[in-house]
Every structure is written in structure tokens, then in C-alpha cells.
Design a protein that fits this description.
- This is Ubiquinone biosynthesis monooxygenase COQ6, mitochondrial.
- It is a single chain.
- Helix content is about 40%, strand content about 25%.
- It is an alpha+beta fold.
Length: about 475
């Protein structure tokens, strides 16, 4: 009797699940319903495509039926002689991730530039901090790679996987999402495209950027603000040919200006400044723009004599203790010109989703968090999400649990927020600390920089955190 009752309940449970899925698809015509997947990755780009590649390469996840919805068209990539104006600074951990899925070899076969030194200094006080590859066991500080080069490298390996369980839809414009609720977990997520095509899945992953539609469909709180700043980018031609493995960043009262090495003759510019100033910079003739940039790198800004006196005293104390006082430094390069049509600008902002997961849904990359580019950490945080998500999901599959089991999803959210939130707050604090020129604040931050630069254990801790 008890056995018959259990069979009856189990049969009704299965029928209920079927009815729920029928109800889910009732709003979609049969001719437009394209199929069900274990995982749908909404959004391609560097993060979404890398996640798809990492899942296809993982032996425990390669059996999952995965659909990647890439908003961009499938177009042929051509490596041009001139560099793109959009680049990323990849950390050591990102390099390890890319190497583990055989992507890094494709990047090396195209082009990248190692950063072996980094020098950051304050225009209001000349307080400086420097980093060197020799301080991190001879590993490079970072690697400068063009966005489209990295994306092509990922797509090259993605197309070589021969994984029959991975499908890609290019030019996918998503119209709407229907997600399962906390009380209705057996209902799958439904993704409808603008052309009417629809797909369902057990696990939906939002990799669709800062304006994530997946995040909006989740209904989670998103803390965000606009800095009223823009990042001006360009490809620069240097006045002199050098080894050029140093990244330079000078903190101006309006925001940081950074030169990232590309090769012996060229660097990439990321100049964060107020919106009105950015628009004016874009309008300037090339020669005037180059003059403005050289001024930003070399110009002597108004200084406080009291701050200078205090910094001189701090430097003397450091020298007396046998520590580096920051006086020895390299001079940044001068800029000779810019590559034609390479100037552009993009808005800067902060964003953080209070939740990274919901029943059957997870967020990665800019869909979960957005930071100021001053530390070059934005995309590295996204690649860190990928590493954590694929490892935890693989463990879940190995132990036989469902791929939407709340335990691994909560752990993913917890582990990534423990890393991402402190990083975001530190970057936010730096931005706010350096966009004021009030002398007491200048003195406070300058002393902090000088002392940090003098103490190797603190510098190594900062570099180790940035590398993860």
C-alpha cells in the first residue's frame, strides 16, 4: 500500500513538471520554439565566449547541452597593422585561465605586450608608487591585449572544440526572459529573441554587460551611479623608440591619465576626465590633442608648500630607515602623434548587483559588477567569475547534484562577492581620494602612497590581490 502511494505521488510529480513546462511554452508557437538546453549563456563578448569555451573544455561540463547567444554578428577577423584603441590589462590569473583552455597560445601568435614595470604618481605632490616584475617572482605585472584580439583568440579555440553539445547563435537580439520563481523551481527559464525564436534552459547565465537584461528580469537590487566622467582612448605614437614595457599613470585633479605599452613605438591611452573636458578633447585637432596630452603627463600643477615640506620630511624619515623614498623614478615618454581615427570615449560608472544568483539564474562579469577603469580590473573580475563558476559547477555535476542546486550557486555568489566587493570599494575610494586637490587630503594620500611604496610586503599584497 505504501509502495503504491509512493509510485502514485512520483507519477503525479512528473506529470506536474510536464504541465509546468507546457505552461511555460504555451506563449510560444511550436514553429518558433527551437529547443531546450541545460545552460544558456546570454551575451557573448570576451566574458560570455570565454565562459562557453571553459565549459566546453571542462570534462565534467562538456556533456551539458549549452547555447551561447552572441549579440554581435559572426564576422571574419583580420589582424591589422594598426592597433585597436580598446585594450585590456590581463592579470596573471587571467593568463592562467586562458592557458588552461588553450586560448593564450592564440593570443601569443597574434600580439600582446607584457608590462614589467608600472609607475603611478600624483600630479599634486609627485608622491609615487612603482611595481616591478622582479617583485613578483619574475612574473610580468600584466599583459596588454587588444579586446578584439582576445575575443578572436577565444573564438578560435571555441570553434576548435568540436563539442556537439555547444551551439552558438550570432546576431541574437533578445526580446524577453521568463524566469522561474522561488516557489516554482521546476519551471525552466524561457528566452525569446526579437525574431520570435525561443529557447528554454535549466540554468541561465547572464553575461550581457552592465545594462544586463537578465539582471533586470531577476528583479535584484542594483547599486549604481554615473561618475559624470568619460574615458578618452586613442592609439599613441611615441616620440622615441624604447623597450616600452612600463605602464604609466599620472593622477590629475580631473582623473588619471594612463599610457599602456603596445610595442616599442606605440602605447594605448586611457584618459579619465570630466564629460565636458572629454568632449572638448575629442574635438581638438590632432596636434592640439597631442599637446594637451603631453601637458597632462608633464605639466607642473599648483602645489602646496606645506604639502611639499611634509613630504620632504617623510622622505627623509624613509631614507633614515633604509627604505625607498620614491625619489628615484623613470620619466614618462613624450607623445609624438596619434593613430588616425583612433580617438574615442566611453562613459564611466559604478555598478554592483546585490545578488549574483536567483533560482536557475547566475550573473557573471559586468552584469554583476562594474568598476572605474583606473586599476584595469574590470575584465579580470569577470574572468575570475568564470573560473569560480566553472569549478563549482563541475564539482556539483561530479557529485550528482542538479546544475541549479542552490548550494553551489550560493557558494559562487559568496566567494565572488568576497573578492569583488573589496576590490570595487578600494577602486572607488581611490577615485574619490584623487579627484580632490584640498591640501590636507593631498597630504594624506601622498603619505599613504610613499609609505606603501617603501614597504615591500604591502606592495606584494596589493599586487597579489590585483592578480586574482
Amino acid at each position: 500500500m505504501i509502495l503504491n502511494t509512493q509510485k502514485f505521488l512520483l507519477k503525479n510529480l512528473k506529470n506536474t513538471r510536464k504541465l509546468l513546462n507546457i505552461r511555460l511554452l504555451s506563449t510560444v508557437g511550436d514553429e518558433k520554439y527551437k529547443g531546450n538546453y541545460d545552460v544558456i549563456i546570454a551575451g557573448g563578448g570576451m566574458v560570455g565566449c570565454t565562459l562557453a569555451c571553459a565549459m566546453a573544455k571542462n570534462p565534467l561540463l562538456s556533456s551539458l547541452k549549452v547555447l551561447l547567444l552572441e549579440g554581435s554578428p559572426d564576422k571574419k577577423f583580420e589582424l591589422k597593422p594598426e592597433y585597436s584603441n580598446r585594450v585590456v590589462a590581463l592579470s596573471q590569473n587571467t593568463k592562467l585561465l586562458m592557458s588552461s583552455i588553450n586560448v593564450w597560445q592564440h593570443v601569443e601568435n597574434m600580439r600582446l605586450q607584457p608590462v614589467r614595470h608600472m609607475q603611478v604618481w600624483d600630479a599634486c605632490s609627485d608622491a609615487m608608487i612603482s611595481f616591478s616584475s622582479s617583485e613578483i617572482l619574475d612574473d610580468d605585472v600584466a599583459y596588454i591585449v587588444e579586446n578584439d584580439v582576445l575575443l578572436h583568440a577565444v573564438n578560435t579555440e571555441l570553434n576548435k572544440t568540436n563539442n556537439k553539445n555547444l551551439d552558438i547563435v550570432y546576431g541574437a537580439k533578445i526580446d524577453s526572459y521568463k524566469l522561474p520563481t522561488s516557489t516554482d523551481r521546476e519551471l525552466k527559464s524561457l528566452v525569446k529573441l526579437a525574431n520570435g525564436d525561443a529557447y528554454s534552459c535549466q540554468l541561465l547565465i547572464g553575461a550581457d554587460g552592465a545594462n544586463s537584461a537578465v539582471r533586470r528580469a531577476m528583479g535584484v537590487q542594483y547599486v549604481s551611479w554615473n561618475y559624470k566622467q568619460m574615458g578618452v582612448v586613442a592609439t599613441l605614437h611615441l616620440a622615441e623608440e624604447t623597450e616600452n614595457t612600463t605602464a604609466w599613470q599620472r593622477w590629475l585633479p580631473t582623473g588619471p591619465v594612463a599610457l599602456l605599452p603596445l610595442d616599442s613605438k606605440r602605447s594605448s591611452l586611457v584618459w579619465s576626465t570630466w564629460e565636458e573636458n572629454a568632449k572638448e578633447l575629442l574635438k581638438l585637432p590632432e596636434e592640439q590633442f597631442v599637446d594637451a596630452l603631453n601637458d597632462a603627463l608633464w605639466k607642473q600643477y599648483p602645489r602646496s608648500s606645506a604639502v611639499d615640506a611634509c613630504m620632504s620630511w617623510v622622505g627623509g624619515c624613509l631614507r633614515g630607515a633604509g627604505l625607498a623614498d620614491g625619489a628615484a623614478r623613470q620619466l614618462p615618454p613624450s607623445v609624438r602623434g596619434i593613430a588616425p581615427a583612433s580617438r574615442a570615449a566611453f562613459p564611466l560608472g559604478f555598478g554592483h548587483s546585490t545578488r549574483y544568483v536567483a533560482p536557475g539564474v547566475a550573473l557573471v562579469g559586468d552584469a554583476a559588477h562594474r568598476v572605474h577603469p583606473l586599476a584595469g580590473q574590470g575584465v579580470n573580475l569577470g574572468f575570475g567569475d568564470i573560473k569560480e563558476l566553472t569549478e563549482l559547477l563541475a564539482d556539483t555535476v561530479y557529485t550528482g547534484f542538479d546544475i541549479t542546486h542552490p548550494d553551489w550557486m550560493r557558494r559562487y555568489e559568496s566567494e565572488r562577492q568576497k573578492h569583488n566587493v573589496p576590490t570595487q570599494l578600494a577602486i572607488e575610494a581611490l577615485h574619490r581620494l584623487y579627484t580632490v586637490d584640498f591640501p590636507p587630503v593631498v597630504l594624506l594620500r601622498s603619505i599613504g602612497v610613499q609609505v606603501t611604496n617603501a614597504l615591500q610586503p604591502i606592495k606584494k599584497f596589493v599586487m597579489a590581490h590585483a592578480a586574482t
